[in-house]
Amino acid sequence: MSTLSENELIAQIRLINTEGIGAISFYKLYHKYGSAQTALENLPPRYKATSLKEAQKEYEKAKKGGINIISFADSRYPQALKELSDCPPLLYAYGNTDLLAHKNSISIVGSRNASINGRKIASRLAYELTENNILVISGMARGIDTSAHKGAMYALNQQGPTIAVLGTGVDLPYPEENKDLYKQIAAQGLIISELPLGTTPQAQNFPRRNRIIAGLSLGTLVVEANLQSGSLITARLALEQNREVFAIPGSPTESRALGSNKLIKEGAVLVDCVDDILEHLKTTDSQLFTPKENRQDFPLQEKLLDKEENNADIPEEKKTTTDIRNYLSKEGVYMDELIRISHLPANELSAILIDMELSGEIMRLPGNKIALIKK
Predict the structure, then answer these.
(1) Per-residue pLDDT band at 136 (split at 50, 70, 90)
(2) Options 3.90.78.10, 3.40.50.450, 3.40.630.30, 3.40.50.2300; which CATH number does 102-310 get?
(3) 222 by DSSP, 3-state: which?
(4) pLDDT digits (tens, 9 = 90+) for 165-203
(5) What global pTM score does this model have?
(6) For a surface tag, which of 43, 45, 105, 247 has the fewest beta carbons within 10 Å of its beta carbon?
């Protein structure tokens, strides 16, 4: 339980939400004056503090929703995150906050537009890591993140824990199709965010979210990533935080493997099975974890993948040609995979692809693959 007073916590909510004050300036003010309340009383005139009424409303909303607001000064705040100079002054936590004290964790990140094979690898490794007392952390995004969370929760007799770090308010499931996953993680694991409740998806928040994913983990595993992937940001942050970086190798002709292959060239640990991760952790610190002797066999991969596809919400808006183009690569994507990731009926997708083919944007390859000619 928190030993922080309610008034001081509300003062911290006010201070960190004051326009112009980020994590670093928050800590400068806090350490100069000894508390958020005193810092607010001595705030320079150029700052206009968030009102007491707004902060109290935020506090009550969290309390009513069963959401913990955990201050950096709270004993529950993860020690690993405190190593960051800009660690979040506050964490919003929904679920089992005891998981924040788990010392053995690996983050799994990768492409949102993941291949079927990539999702299988992510779910299998997450399952096997969880069976070995390694907590899996990810960002609840489409693709690799989703598969990692599901693999982890299928472990330990389908009671495996996992942590999801959101780039939205912790009360806002994102993406929309992951509502059921959000509920399962909240019941079985933990969902956290540094952002105020109700914060909607904004592009600038996701790279900052990645530093928390990396900071909470002993290391980051990249499963699939192109050269512009946000997963490479997470890997870079992991290196900056003196964490390990692991990567799954892929074909040099597949754009989704270029990022992970680049990481391996630069010194990331090459991974093709869970033992590569476990053995590396043993060599760095044998006290970090205790592997289980009698691991359960991983279930049929199709069981998890079918569950993912059947539970996905169909987006209300129809996919445009631009949306479909984002799913394609020059190496080609199988038609059945395009149907899965676009959530479009086969006839509607075919109509879009015909238009794209006539306009010279795509070409059809052997094996019913669709390849991008130009972007």
Answers:
(1) very high
(2) 3.40.50.450
(3) strand
(4) 999 999 999 998 999 999 999 999 999 999 999 999 998
(5) 0.79
(6) 45
